Amino acid sequence: MQHTPQRRGSGSRRGLVAALAAGALGASLLGGPSAAARPIPPADGAQARTGPRTTLSLPSPPGGSNVKVLVFHGSATAESPTVDAGIAAIEKIGQSGPANQRFKTVASDDASVFTSAKKLGTYNAVVFLTGGGDILDPEQEAGLESYMEAGGGFLGIHDAARTEPYSDWFTGLIGARPADGSPAAVQRATVEVGDRVHPATKDLPLEWKRPDTWLNWKTNPSGAVHTVARVREISYKPGASANGWDHPVSWCRDYDGGRSFYTGMGGTADSYSEADFRDHLRGALLWTTRLVRADCKATIDANYQAERVTRPNKPGQSDQIGEPHGLVTAPDGRVLYIGRGGADSDQPVVTDWNDPDVGKGQGQIHVYDPKTKKVTLAGALTVFGNKGGGDELVKVEEGLLGIELDPGFERNGWVYLHYTPHSQLDRDKQVAERRVSRFTLDLATDKLDLASEKVLLKWPVQVHSCCHAGGGMAWDSKGNLYIATGDNNSSGFSDGYSGNNPEPHYKGLSFADARRTAGNTNNLNGKILRIHPEADGTYTLPAGNLFTGKEQDEGGGRTRGEIYVMGVRNPARIAVDRKTDVLYAGWVGPDAGEPSTTWGPAKYDTFAAITEAGNRGWPYCMGNKQPYRDRNLPDPDKPLGWYDCDHPKNESPNNDGLVNLPPVTGNNIWYSPQGGGIDYPRDADGIPSYRTEEGKQLMPWLKGGGQATMNGPVYRYDATSTSEDKWPAYWDGKWFVGDFYDGDQPRHAVLTDPRTVGQGGIPTHAESLKKIIPVGEGGIRNLMDWKFAPDGSLYVLDYGRGFFTSDAESALWRVTYKGGGPTPAATDLARKAE
Predict the structure, then answer these.
(1) 253 phi, psi to nearest 5 deg
(2) Which of 99, 254, 302, 460 is the most buried (most CB within 10 A)?
(3) Per-residue pLDDT tens for 416-470?
């Protein structure tokens, strides 16, 4: 039966709320804060339904132990085995588990309960196990609305999303409406369980494979609700109305004073016999009944605030920021960030190699103090790096590249800088020196003592041809310092595929053959180094690096003991999760826009979670061990055999390291213009077809084009922190991966499986951050670095809009959480914790 929409009187609604407040439901809730939320827009075609509300009086509330759940199964269609199975499952859930989490279940299809405050007020939660259709009259819907306003709990299951199609309020309660064309057949699919904290999902598998009927949504609710699980569309056939990679299937929100949880699962009778699905419902019911607290706000976009904390520089000065290139947060909350060396765009750049000031720039270190909200220019290094634009042999990416703080920074003020000093430039050979040095910062004045420099490590880099300097640094929990270096190799001379052309050189030094650098065991470029800095300004080598420095093969090749990871191209950003000591890194790929059946894969930008020393493949293999074609003298244009990723050999004439290299480890994330995680069928020898039409996306949530990886941190939630700005526990353990650009490229937090992550296991779940860390005009368009502060807020560097310079959009931002804590309030729990 359908009802004509009518207008409700606000006075009668207030009366019913008051009546509920006098009863069991409202007695403990309305005295404390409510967590009201605005409803999201209704589904297409939905209209507001209004009507009179009834004011009823309620008796005194029953004892706190009498927790009850109403399972309402009134429906425009007949009852089904699915409904019967659902009722039985909820009854069993209520009768099992710890004694303080049990509840009584009452099943009914009589909608009159919603107009009886005496009855409705005795239920801690209402479950809609309904079919579609308009099953509540205006007065009954008003009763449900008042019940939620008084602090009630609601759980909708599967077809409950089709109920009350004319009600805007019910659309908000559910969160989304099914789209026409949702597949009706039962299909086995993979559910990505992204929330590892909520009681409805914390004990479920990361990847939950199960059969069900899967609904598509007219309007995707992500960002307006808190999604706890998504269904992976590439694991089944979602039909023409598919939602894409972001396909929520279970979510929750604090709504109109109460708590609402919805799951699109449960469309089959067999669902309710699954232990995992019953656990899912159990957790939802524990929260909606007020038996436990939970956070249903963590991924709602409106709960985050992004604020630019630096101003544009004064004309001709760098008083606020240099050319943004990296940041680090201090234990007391201060943020130190660096400028690579590019000057203000209106200042001249010396590009003449005959001029002694060629490429001279200032690598600046700024300090932002959140207590005073002021910026101090701590100091500047004279670097080789103020060049940019134009021909490949003119621009350069050297300069001030990385910054880290000593683990004892609060005591000693030590700052480590990774940079290219101008004073060591050999203009004749066009070779420079890269170094990692320790400086001392005056903690009272935020001024860097340039005379305090202790040079830990230095090595040569060619600067005749751009590019790939790398630069990021990070510490592990054992006091080891990781240093990311680029392959110091040209992007040209290989058509954008493997950088393995041995022919181009300048005065005998190869600049287009990454086998000289990244693929060379005796060269520190194209690596992630690991050293243990000592108090006297020297370093020792920790055990477990890839080489000891003493290895030698028949060809006389040697190794460097500082190498922890070889085979990386341009790793600008790295991070170490201090809880696990897993190293996270990202590096930029080559330039080929599409794969080649002759030369190999298209450009892959890459992220990797690294659990042990190893070889990540460049320039031999990329992605999930997809090989390139070898080339060599006398004719580098002629393709030779495919590289063997399991037994790579460095047979370049520019190699002075080992010929036989460690096997390649596959990477976790790779993307190109064709999409994320592109994979191809392989022949009997394991060689991919590299035919575009045969490529399959394993990670459809990201895509490239113009692309430049910017690896981020792993967030760790601090429950002891009193900060009101910290990101919620939902994000704990999630790895933040991003891209310099803000189009289809990644800006996500991902989950990985600890059992497979070190061997290239792809993420089990990805969560978009593009509305939390805003993109586009007025947002953070060019992400250069991002780090969490001790208070749990996130700092982000926006590079600006011009390359090799700083401009008015170059800025430091801070992203804070404003959503509040879990609900209900601890004082409003239905039972005290035992």
Answers:
(1) -165, 155
(2) 254
(3) 999 999 999 999 999 999 999 999 999 999 999 999 999 999 999 999 999 999 9
Q: Name the token pair of 687.
A: 């060689």
Among 497, 653, 483, CA closest to 583? 483
CB neighbourhood size of 646 (10 A): 11
Q: How many residues are given for the chain?
A: 834
DSSP H or E stretch at residue 472: strand 470-475
CB atoms within 10 A of CB 681: 12
The whole-number pLDDT of residue 833 equals 57
| C-alpha closest to that of 10 among 39, 49, 53 | 53
The C-alpha atoms of residue 530 and residue 541 are separated, in whole angstroms, by 7
CA distance 399 to 830: 61
Whether 479 contacts 539, CB under 8 Å: no
Peptide bond connecting 619 to the previous residue in cis, omega within 30 degrees of 0: yes
d(CA 778, CA 61): 52
Instruction: Quote the tokens at residue 313.
Output: 């520089």
Q: Which CATH class is domain 10-32+62-300?
A: alpha beta
Q: Domain residues of the chain, as ranges? A: 10-32+62-300, 323-817
The residue type found at 373 is K
Residue pointed to by tokens 């075609």: 45
H/E element holding 379? strand 374-384
Do the first three CATH levels of 10-32+62-300 and 323-817 match, i.e. the same topology? Answer: no
672: DSSP letter: E
Asked if 150 contacts 162 with a C-beta cutoff of 8 angstroms, the reply is no
Instruction: Compute how many other C-beta atoms are within 10 angstroms of the C-beta atom of residue 36.
Output: 12
Residues 6+ apart with CB under 8 A from 543: none
Element containing residue 285 per DSSP (H, E): helix 275-288
Q: What is the largest CA-CA distance in the chain?
A: 95
Peptide bond before 681: cis, by omega within 30 degrees of 0?
A: no
Distance CA 750, CA 422 (A): 40
CA angle 710, 648, 497 (to 5 degrees): 50
For residue range 704-715, list pLDDT tens digits in order. 999 999 999 999
Q: What is the pLDDT of residues 723-782, one digit of tens each?
A: 999 999 999 999 999 999 998 899 999 999 999 999 999 999 999 999 999 998 889 999
The answer to whether 422 touches 387, Cβ cutoff 8 Å, is no
How far, in Å, CA of 418 to CA of 405, rounded?
12
- Cα angle vertex 636, ends 630, 639, to 5°? 45
H-helix or E-strand spanning residue 86 = helix 81-95
Question: Tell me, which fold does domain 323-817 have in CATH?
Answer: Neuraminidase (2.120.10)
Contact 605, 586 (CB under 8 A): yes
